[in-house]
Write a sequence for this structure.
C-alpha cells in the first residue's frame, strides 16, 4: 500500500468520525431501550401485589454510596481520556485500572443488594413492581459489566500494543459508553430510588 | 441434557411431516448438487463471506424470495380453511394448526419478506446513489445479514422441531404467557425476532452513517436522490423503534423463562403495557416498510416521465413529517382497549394528520407525470397499481382513524383488508417496481417486459379478488383469525378471496418465469452502457454489472439528478485518467459465526438447555471480542487492475 | 447520444387493443355479477343497525367516506387524465421536462387536505366523546346492568340485580340502556355485537364498561373479536332484545331455575370448553363478578400464575 503519512492520517480521522457517529447513534438506541424499561417501571411501580414497595426495600444511603462510586469512576474515565490525548500510556492504564476497580465495586454492591432482596423472598417473581425494578436496575448493571469486560480487554491491548490509532479509537468509545451509563444511573437513582422512597 | 427437547418434538401431523420431509429432500438434492459441481467453496468465497453490499443485497433478496413462497403457502392454507370451514364442516386443519399458520404468515411476511427485500434493495442501490464505494461499516453489514438469516433459520426450524406460536404475529399477552401457552411456539417467535431485530438495528445505524458521512463530494443533503432521503428517514425510524421491540420481546422472554411478571395476568403484571410497547414499535415499523417504497416510486416516476421530480423540497418535508408523526399514533391500534375519549380522540386526530403529507406525495407524483412523456413500462405499471390500491386502502385507514368507527371494525376482516392493501399495494408493489427497475443495473440485461406486465395484471387482479371480499366480510361482522364460522352467507366471499389468492400465486409464478426467460434471452436484452431507461441518478453512470468498487473515480456532484445533467452537457470521454489503487474490504466469516452461535443460544433458551445457553453465549462474546481486537486489513485492487477493469468497461460505453 | 437497450419490448398497440378492452370489461362485469349475487340476502349488521350507538356510528362512517371522496375522486380523475394525455406516443401534449415546482399547487395540496382533516378532527373529538363506551345512554327507561365474563371459550352473563346468569345467550329489554361491566377469566377478549354498536376489550384482572341499547326486538349475533386460544372461534353468543314483559318472564323463570351458579359451579364452568350451547342459571352469589376480577389482583390465589 503506497500511502503517504498524510493520507493515512486522513484515512484514520475519517474512519474515526464514521465510527464515532455510528457509536453515538448506537448509544441513542440504547437510550431508547432504557426508556422502554423506565416506562414499564413507571407503569408497574405501584403493582406490589401485597409485597413490599419502594420504601420498604430501598436503602437510600447505600444507593448514595453506589452513586458516588459510579460518578467518581466517570471522573477517572475522563482522566483516561486526558492521558490518552497526552499520549501517556502509563497514566492511561493507571486510571483505567482505577475506573475498573470502582466499577467492579459498584457491581458488587448491586449484586449484594439483589441477593439480600432475593434472600428475603422479594425476587422478581414476587410482583410486577419487583419485576420492573430488577430488570431496569439489572439491565444497567449488565451494561456496566460489559463495560468492565471491555476495560479488561482494552487494558490488555493498550499494555501490549500501546496507544495506536485503533486502541485510541476504542478507548474513546469505551469512555463514551461509560459516561452514558453514568447518565442512565442518574435517572435510575432519581426515578427509581429517590422518587420511590419519597 | 437437552432441556425440554424430546423426540416428541419431531413428531407432527401428517401434512406437516410430509412437507418437512419433502423440503429436506429438496435441500439434500441442492447440497449434493453443490458438492458435485464444487460450488460450495465458490459460494463461501464469493457470496457468503463477501462484504460487498451488492452481494449482501442479492443474498437478502434470495432469502426474502424464499420466505415469500412460504408466506404465500401459508396464505393459501388460510384461504382454503376459511373457504371451507363453515357450519358443520371444520375445514382442512384444526384450530391450533390454523392459528400457527396465520401467526407464521404475518411474522414471516413483515420481518423476513418485506424487511429482507427492502434491506436487499437498499444495500445494492444506496452506496451507488450517494457516489460511494461501500456502506459505512461493511463487516457490520455482513453480520446484520447473517443475524437476519439466523432469524429465518429459527422460524423455519420451528416446523421441524416443536411448533410455532399460535398467538398472532404480535403475540399479545396473557395469551402468550406461560399460563396459556407453556409450549415452545411463542419462544420460537420471540427469539427469531430478537435475533433478526438486532440485525435490523445494526443495519439502521449502518445506513444512516453511510448517508451522513459517505456522500460524494458536492452532494449536499438537498442534492441527494429522493430515494436516499426515504432511506434516511426509514433508518431513523429503525434506530428509534427497534430498541423498543428488543426491550419488549426481552420482557416477554423473561416472563416465560425466569418468572418475571411484566405482562402476566395477576401478580401485578400489566398486559396493556405490552400492547402499548409493541405498537410503539409496530407503528413506526409499517412506516419503515413504506418509506423506502415511496422512495423507489419517487425514483421511477421521474425517469419514466422524462421529467424532474415535482416538488423535491415538498417531498423531503413530507418524508420527514411522516417520520416524526409516525411516533405519535400508536394507540390507534387499540382504541377498543378503553383508554377513554380524550386519549382516543387525540391519537385518532394524529393518525389523520399523517394522511396529509402522504397525500402531498401522491399529488407530487401526479404532477411529475403531468407534462412529461410517460413510458408505461413494467415499473410504471406497478406504480399505477400502487396509486389506485394505496388510495383506497388509505381511505379505509382514515375511516378507522375515527375511534367511533373503529369500535365497529376493529379486529375484523375490514382491518385485515386495510393493512394488506397498504402493504401489498405499497410495499410489495414498490419492491417489485424497484426490482424490475434496477435489475438491469446488476445483471447487464433487462427483464422480459411482456411477462412483467402479465405478472402485474395477475397480481392486481388477484389482489382485488382476494381483498375486496374481506372489506365486505368485515362489515358483515366477521372477525379476523377465525378458523370456523356459522353464517353461510359469508362463504361465497371467502371462496372469491381464495380464488384471488390463487391468482396472486399465479402472478408470482409468472414473475419466476419472467426471471428464467430473461436469463435465457439475456443476449437479446443486453444493456450496453449500463443505462437502459435513460436514468437520472448516479447509479446509472456505472456499467452493468458494476465493478466491485462501484466508482473507479469518485464522482463530483454539482446538482440533483447529477447523471441527467452530465448527459445533457454531453458525456465526454475522459483522457489521461490516472487510476489509483482501491481498497476493498477483505472477505470475512465473522458474520456467519456470530449468527450461528447467537442462533444456538436462542435455540438453547427456547428448549431450556441450560448448559448450551451458557456455552453459546460465551462463545458468541468471545467471537465478538476477537473480531473487535483483530488486526484489520483490506484487500487492495492495484491501480493497474482498476485500469484494466475500467478499460474493458469503456469499450461498452457510448459517447457523443 | 444514449440509446435504450434493444431488449425493451413494448406491447404492440394495434387491433388487439379493442379485443383486450372488451375482454377486460366482460371479466369485470362477470365478477361484479357474482358479488351482487352474493350480497343479495346477506345482512350487514353495521350498515343495518339495530341500536342507537350502531346507528350513530354508521352515520359517522357514511360522513367520513363522503369526505374522503373529496380527495379520492379528483386523484383518480387526474390519474386517468394525466396517464392518457401525457403518454409518450401523444406528441401533441406539452412536454416541460424541467418544470418541477409551483407555489400555488403546493399550497393547494397541503392546504386542502388540512382543511378536510380539520373538519374531521372536530368531528372525531366530538364523536369520540359522544360515543365513548363508558358514557351512559340517556333514556326514559331505567338502565339494567349486565356483568360479562369472557371465559375459555364462552361468555358468561351475570345479572347481579336480578340474581340470574346465563352462558352464550342473554336477554334484555328493548329500548332500555344496558350497562355492561366486562372482565375476563381468560386471555384478552373483545366483546362485540356489531348490530348494536361498539366493541370493547374484556381483560383479566380489569374491569371495562360498555353502554349499548337495542331499538328493535330481535336476536343479534355477538362474538369475540380478539384471539384468546384455540377455541376462540366458538365464542359466538346471542343478544336477544325482547319486550319488557318477555324479559320479566325470562328473568322470573331463571330465578326459579334448578341450575345454580355459585363459586363451586363457577370453577367447573370456567374450565376450558368451546362451542358450548346456551345455558341458564340462578345466581347464588351476587359478588361473583367482583370475586372474578379480584382473583387476579389479590395474592394467595391458586389461579394466578
Amino acid at each position: 500500500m503506497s500511502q503517504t503519512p498524510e493520507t493515512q492520517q486522513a484515512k484514520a480521522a475519517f474512519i474515526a468520525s464514521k465510527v464515532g457517529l455510528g457509536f453515538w447513534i448506537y448509544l441513542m438506541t440504547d437510550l431508547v431501550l432504557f426508556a422502554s424499561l423506565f416506562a414499564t417501571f413507571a407503569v408497574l411501580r405501584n403493582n406490589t401485589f401485597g409485597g413490599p414497595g419502594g420504601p420498604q426495600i430501598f436503602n437510600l444511603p447505600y444507593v448514595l454510596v453506589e452513586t458516588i462510586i459510579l460518578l467518581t469512576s466517570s471522573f477517572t474515565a475522563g482522566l483516561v481520556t486526558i492521558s490518552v490525548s497526552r499520549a501517556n500510556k502509563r497514566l492511561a492504564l493507571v486510571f483505567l485500572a482505577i475506573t475498573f476497580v470502582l466499577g467492579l465495586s459498584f457491581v458488587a454492591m448491586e449484586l449484594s443488594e439483589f441477593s439480600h432482596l432475593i434472600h428475603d423472598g422479594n425476587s422478581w417473581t414476587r410482583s410486577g413492581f419487583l419485576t420492573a425494578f430488577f430488570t431496569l436496575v439489572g439491565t444497567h448493571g449488565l451494561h456496566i459489566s460489559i463495560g468492565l469486560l471491555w476495560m479488561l480487554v482494552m487494558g490488555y491491548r493498550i499494555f501490549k500494543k500501546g496507544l495506536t490509532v485503533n486502541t485510541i479509537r476504542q478507548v474513546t468509545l469505551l469512555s463514551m459508553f461509560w459516561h452514558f451509563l453514568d447518565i442512565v444511573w442518574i435517572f435510575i437513582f432519581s426515578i427509581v430510588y429517590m422518587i420511590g422512597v419519597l | 441434557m437437552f432441556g425440554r427437547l424430546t423426540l416428541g418434538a419431531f413428531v407432527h401431523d401428517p401434512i406437516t411431516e410430509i412437507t418437512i420431509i419433502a423440503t429436506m429432500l429438496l435441500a439434500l438434492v441442492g447440497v449434493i448438487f453443490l458438492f458435485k459441481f464444487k460450488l460450495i467453496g465458490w459460494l463461501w468465497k464469493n457470496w457468503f463471506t463477501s462484504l460487498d453490499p451488492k452481494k449482501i443485497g442479492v443474498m437478502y433478496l434470495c432469502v426474502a424470495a424464499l420466505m415469500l413462497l412460504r408466506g404465500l403457502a401459508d396464505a393459501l392454507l388460510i384461504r382454503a380453511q376459511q373457504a371451507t370451514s363453515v357450519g358443520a364442516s371444520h375445514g382442512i386443519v384444526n384450530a391450533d394448526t390454523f392459528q400457527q399458520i396465520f401467526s407464521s404468515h404475518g411474522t414471516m411476511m413483515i420481518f423476513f419478506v418485506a424487511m429482507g427485500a427492502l434491506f436487499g434493495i437498499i444495500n445494492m442501490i444506496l452506496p451507488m446513489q450517494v457516489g460511494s464505494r461501500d456502506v459505512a461499516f461493511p463487516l457490520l453489514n455482513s453480520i446484520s445479514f447473517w443475524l437476519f438469516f439466523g432469524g429465518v433459520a429459527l422460524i423455519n426450524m420451528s416446523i421441524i422441531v416443536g411448533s410455532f406460536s399460535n398467538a398472532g404475529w404480535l403475540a399479545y399477552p396473557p395469551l402468550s404467557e406461560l399460563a396459556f401457552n407453556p409450549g415452545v411456539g411463542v419462544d420460537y417467535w420471540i427469539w427469531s425476532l430478537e435475533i433478526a431485530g438486532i440485525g435490523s438495528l445494526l443495519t439502521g445505524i449502518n445506513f444512516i452513517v453511510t448517508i451522513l458521512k459517505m456522500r460524494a463530494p458536492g452532494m449536499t443533503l438537498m442534492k441527494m436522490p429522493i430515494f436516499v432521503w426515504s432511506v434516511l428517514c426509514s433508518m431513523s425510524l429503525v434506530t428509534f423503534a427497534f430498541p423498543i421491540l428488543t426491550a419488549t420481546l426481552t420482557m416477554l422472554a423473561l416472563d416465560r423463562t425466569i418468572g418475571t411478571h411484566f405482562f402476566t395476568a395477576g401478580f401485578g403484571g400489566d398486559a396493556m403495557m405490552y400492547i402499548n410497547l409493541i405498537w410503539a414499535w409496530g407503528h413506526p415499523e409499517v412506516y419503515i416498510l413504506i418509506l423506502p417504497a415511496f422512495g423507489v416510486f419517487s425514483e421511477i416516476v421521474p425517469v419514466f416521465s422524462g421529467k424532474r421530480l415535482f416538488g423535491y423540497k415538498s417531498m423531503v418535508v413530507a418524508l420527514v413529517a411522516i417520520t416524526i408523526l409516525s411516533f405519535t399514533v400508536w394507540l390507534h391500534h387499540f382504541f377498543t382497549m378503553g383508554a377513554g375519549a380524550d386519549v382516543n380522540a387525540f391519537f385518532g386526530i394524529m393518525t389523520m394528520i399523517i394522511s396529509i403529507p402522504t397525500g402531498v406525495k401522491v399529488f407530487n407524483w401526479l404532477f411529475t407525470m403531468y407534462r412529461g412523456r410517460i413510458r408505461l413500462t413494467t415499473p410504471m405499471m406497478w406504480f399505477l397499481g400502487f396509486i389506485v390500491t394505496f388510495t383506497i386502502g388509505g381511505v379505509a385507514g382514515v375511516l378507522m382513524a375515527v375511534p367511533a368507527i373503529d369500535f365497529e371494525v376493529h379486529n375484523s376482516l375490514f382491518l385485515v383488508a386495510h393493512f394488506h392493501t397498504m402493504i401489498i399495494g405499497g410495499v410489495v408493489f414498490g419492491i417489485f417496481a424497484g426490482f424490475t427497475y434496477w435489475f438491469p443495473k446488476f445483471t447487464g440485461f433487462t427483464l422480459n417486459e411482456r411477462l412483467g406486465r402479465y405478472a402485474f395484471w395477475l397480481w392486481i387482479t388477484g389482489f382485488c379478488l382476494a381483498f375486496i371480499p374481506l372489506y365486505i366480510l368485515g362489515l358483515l361482522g366477521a372477525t379476523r383469525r377465525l378458523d370456523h364460522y356459522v353464517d353461510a352467507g359469508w362463504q361465497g366471499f371467502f371462496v372469491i378471496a381464495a380464488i384471488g389468492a390463487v391468482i396472486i400465486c399465479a402472478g408470482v409464478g409468472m414473475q419466476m418465469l419472467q426471471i428464467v426467460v430473461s436469463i435465457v434471452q439475456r443476449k437479446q436484452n443486453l444493456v450496453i452502457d449500463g443505462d437502459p431507461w435513460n436514468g437520472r441518478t448516479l447509479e446509472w453512470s456505472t456499467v452493468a454489472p458494476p465493478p466491485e468498487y462501484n466508482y473507479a473515480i469518485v464522482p463530483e456532484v454539482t446538482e440533483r439528478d447529477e447523471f441527467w445533467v452530465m448527459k445533457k452537457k454531453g458525456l465526454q470521454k475522459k483522457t489521461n485518467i490516472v487510476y489509483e489503487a482501491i481498497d476493498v474490504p477483505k472477505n470475512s466469516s465473522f458474520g456467519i459465526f456470530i449468527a450461528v452461535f447467537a442462533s444456538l443460544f436462542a435455540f438453547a433458551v427456547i428448549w431450556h438447555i441450560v448448559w448450551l445457553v451458557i456455552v453459546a453465549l460465551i462463545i458468541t462474546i468471545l467471537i465478538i471480542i476477537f473480531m473487535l481486537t483483530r488486526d484489520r486489513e483490506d484487500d487492495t485492487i492495484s491501480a493497474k487492475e482498476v485500469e484494466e477493469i475500467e478499460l474493458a468497461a469503456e469499450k461498452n460505453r457510448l459517447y457523443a | 447520444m444514449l440509446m435504450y437497450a434493444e431488449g425493451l419490448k413494448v406491447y404492440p398497440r394495434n387491433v388487439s387493443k379493442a379485443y383486450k378492452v372488451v375482454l377486460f370489461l366482460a371479466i369485470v362485469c362477470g365478477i361484479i355479477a357474482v358479488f351482487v349475487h352474493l350480497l343479495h340476502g346477506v345482512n350487514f349488521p353495521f350498515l343495518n343497525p339495530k341500536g342507537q350507538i350502531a346507528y350513530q356510528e354508521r352515520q359517522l362512517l357514511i360522513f367520513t367516506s363522503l369526505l374522503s371522496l373529496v380527495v379520492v375522486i379528483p386523484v383518480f380523475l387526474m390519474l386517468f387524465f394525466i396517464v392518457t394525455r401525457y403518454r409518450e406516443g401523444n406528441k401533441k401534449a406539452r412536454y416541460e421536462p424541467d418544470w418541477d415546482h409551483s407555489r400555488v399547487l403546493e399550497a393547494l395540496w397541503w392546504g386542502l387536505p388540512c382543511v378536510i382533516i380539520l373538519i374531521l378532527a372536530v368531528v372525531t373529538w366530538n364523536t369520540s366523546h359522544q360515543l365513548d363506551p363508558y358514557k351512559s345512554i340517556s333514556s326514559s327507561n331505567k338502565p339494567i346492568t349486565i356483568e360479562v365474563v369472557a371465559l375459555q371459550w364462552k361468555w358468561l352473563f351475570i345479572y347481579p340485580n336480578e340474581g340470574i346468569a346465563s352462558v352464550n345467550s342473554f336477554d334484555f329489554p328493548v329500548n332500555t340502556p344496558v350497562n355492561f361491566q366486562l372482565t375476563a377469566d381468560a386471555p384478552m377478549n373483545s366483546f362485540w355485537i356489531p348490530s348494536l354498536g361498539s366493541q370493547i376489550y374484556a381483560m383479566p384482572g380489569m374491569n371495562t364498561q360498555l353502554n349499548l341499547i337495542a331499538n328493535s326486538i330481535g336476536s343479534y349475533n355477538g362474538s369475540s373479536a380478539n384471539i384468546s386460544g384455540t377455541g376462540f372461534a366458538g365464542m359466538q353468543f346471542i343478544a336477544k332484545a325482547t319486550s319488557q314483559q318477555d324479559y320479566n318472564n325470562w328473568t322470573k323463570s331463571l330465578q326459579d331455575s334448578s341450575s345454580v351458579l355459585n363459586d363451586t359451579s363457577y370453577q367447573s364452568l370456567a374450565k376450558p370448553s368451546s362451542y358450548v350451547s346456551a345455558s341458564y342459571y340462578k345466581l347464588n352469589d351476587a359478588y361473583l363478578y367482583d370475586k372474578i376480577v379480584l382473583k387476579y389482583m389479590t395474592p394467595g390465589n391458586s389461579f394466578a400464575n
Notes: The longest strand of chain C covers residues 144-150.
